[in-house]
Amino acid sequence: xxxxxxxxxxxxxxxxxxxxxxxxxxxxxxxxxxxxxxxxxxxxxxxxxxxxxxxxxxxxxxxxxxxxxxxxxxxxxxxxxxxxxxxxxxxxxxxxxxxxxxxxxxxxxxxxxxxxxxxxxxxxxxxxxxxxxxxxxxxxxxxxxxxxxxxxxxxxxxxxxxxxxxxxxxxxxxxxxxxxxxxxxxxxxxxxxxxxxxxxxxxxxxxxxxxxxxxxxxxxxxxxxxxxxxxxxxxxxxxxxxxxxxxxxxxxxxxxxxxxxxxxxxxxxxxxxxxxxxxxxxxxxxxxxxxxxxx
Length: 295
Hints:
This protein has two domains: about 190 residues, 3-Layer(aba) Sandwich (Rossmann fold); about 60 residues. By secondary structure, it is of the alpha/beta class. The protein is built from eleven helices and seven strands.
């Protein structure tokens, strides 16, 4: 009130109300518009603000180039086809050795199913954004399409509570998992937490069986467990031969073998990732562009 006149608002009061309204709007922003699911087959989920960012071109290799993981490939492909056709399918956990094609397989299977004419989207979700999962599911539940929800390199530490958010998509809670959403995750850990952490908590807890059950049992909620193990030298060389054939790179077999073995020896490891890194170097030295396959 101004000039001692009760019941009258001065000119500064209106400006103050506008500032308060603006501050409240910043604290509780207006709901984001519904995503344009026709913009692409692939999306990345971002928060602050919530949005699904379309990915016009997905970084992936052809399914035929993934060597040495035939059983996992066929199982995941069949499961994904079932889901895309509207049939029952399982959430999948791809776990095991680093660099053996877990995330590459998820993206390649999605590409293969879409190439067959089956309508299927894929949404990548970062582990750090798991607390926003319920908001993402609300968007996907209302979508007219089916989606793979993909979380790469999923794992939890002893004080990490993000795993509780994951139960919304694995168990669904009272609302149930959206019928049009399937969850695929990759991890280096079969139980999504380090083995030494499991042993430490079991050894120090008053009720050992209960102290880790909640986290360890999270992996049990995946209907499919697909294990990935270190490859043999023959499989490693077969991967490189496959890349050479696919991209039309002709190299003397003896030279190729010797260089490939030397490359993996300097890295101290053999894997699909190491094979691709060697082939990338080889292609560069021979003046071959890998185009969209470059990553």
